[in-house]
Amino acid sequence: MPDPDGPSPSDQELLGRHVAGDADAFGELFRRHRDRLWAVALRTVCDPEEAADALQDAMVSAFRRAADFRGESAVTTWLHRIVVNASLDRLRRRAARPALSAGDEQAFEALVAQDGDPARAADTRLDVNAALQVLPPAQRAALVVVDMLGFSVADAAAILDISPGTVKSRCARARARLLPYVAHLQGNRSASESVQPAQGGDT
Amino acid sequence: MSAPVTHVDADALAEFRAGLITGRRGAKIAAHLASCDRCAALDGQLAGVSALLAAIPAPVVPGHVALRLDTVLAAEVASRNDPERARREPSPQTGVSARRTGSRRFRLPSPRVLTPVAAAAAVVLAAGGYGLSLLASGPGNQFAASSAGSAAKAAASPKGAASRAAAAVPSPLPVSGSHRMSLAGFAVVTSPADFQPAGLGQQVAAAITAAPAASLAQRTSPQLRACVQKVADGDGVIKVIIARYQGHPATIVVVRTGPGDEARVAGPDCSGTNPDVLNHTSLPSGI
């Protein structure tokens, strides 16, 4: 992704200064991308506390491993990759605990807002966030990076450390899986007619 | 999915849309979509999923998370860029490893959002710098250097600090006798933390380890010196943290008692005659 905040110095310059010992460079770099990195963490782990832990883990890791950055990708890609890895690590650790299991539709029922006013934007956001939790983590991470943050498939592949084909495949499966949970929200956004998705495969 | 005359399910459509189904099978799906309203609608809904997701605004880092990240980062910077501090704390228990453990579990309870503007810190300093001061300027003053960025981070509560400074009475209380050494040998640091009673000791310990890079150096005020002396009550003062306690300005005086270190939380009315101690807790040794 291009750096939206654009003024000099560039991300790469800041990282270089950090590696060279500049005490403030990393902070400036991290704050520049913090909201987007937070979005990745929050939407991947689906829990604010866990997301904060993941983002903190990632920040510390990036701070210490900055010298490992080889410049083969954009600095933002590198940062997002570290955050995604930290988030998935969190989820793996959490998976050992009997909490919400990914793909559990009962979990969705328990989480989705029930106040029945789908026209409100806040509800849409809540519903989407709840729906995301039915996805397996790997699919969710791919969908977040591509559809929610707008990374290209190629960048997403670098962030997720998978092939572009796998990015496409995970996103496709995630979209199909998500559809029943968010189809009712689309009425708020477009005038498309309501059609029941052909779930279960009728071919 | 293989029979072209039947409908296409969502999985296949999603893969088709992603360019994963090509060749003859892709052509069949394309042909089917052109002639089947139902599947075309489903295809539209799938397209809508991506559009819906893209339209959800990205969340902004909550203030307390930003604060926590800033604090942890400050500790990282201090650990890397402050060899003097590293020399002072060579023990693995009290050095980097302890700090890492503390910062990893560090939870700042305050929901307040900092204003990371260097000017805010300058205002506080101009207003008297009650909360942003360094009592001692002798050897071991590792907090003398502070960048503008960390100064801004230190300006956790400019309003509170400024009001305290304005309310402070300029009546220096002479440092005397056995207190002189302890008062001359500690540093005053600022912390953005808003300490809470539960887990106070852990919070203070974390703030101490995180504080150096977020500190400012300036001559202390006599009011602070008097307050600290009163709160210390003869015990050796190790550090003074200017922060908040349950939302209000507070001075945390860390003293070394017989069995170990103790943190005493003094409220806004702390002075040379009134310690205004709101809470106290023991600390792990070696902070």
Question: Could you explain the architecture of this structure?
Answer:
The complex is a heterodimer of chains A (203) and B (287). Chain A has 203 residues and is mainly α. Chain A is built from nine helices and no strands. Chain A has helices at 11-19, 25-45, 48-65, 75-95, 105-111, 121-132, 137-148, 153-160, 164-186. In chain A, helix 1 (11-19) packs across helix 2 (25-45), helix 2 crosses helix 4 and helix 2 (25-45) packs across helix 7 (137-148). Chain A starts with 10 loop residues before the first helix and ends in a 17-residue tail after the last helix. Chain B has 287 residues and is an alpha+beta fold. Helices cover 45% and strands 14% of the residues of chain B. Chain B is built from twelve helices and five strands. Chain B has a five-stranded mixed beta sheet with strand order 1-2-3-4-5, with helices on both faces. In chain B, strand 3 and strand 4 form a beta hairpin. In chain B, helix 1 packs across helix 3. Residues 89-184 and 213-219 of chain B have low confidence and may be disordered. Chains A and B meet through helix 2, helix 3, helix 6, helix 7 and helix 9 of A and helix 1, helix 3 and helix 4 of B.
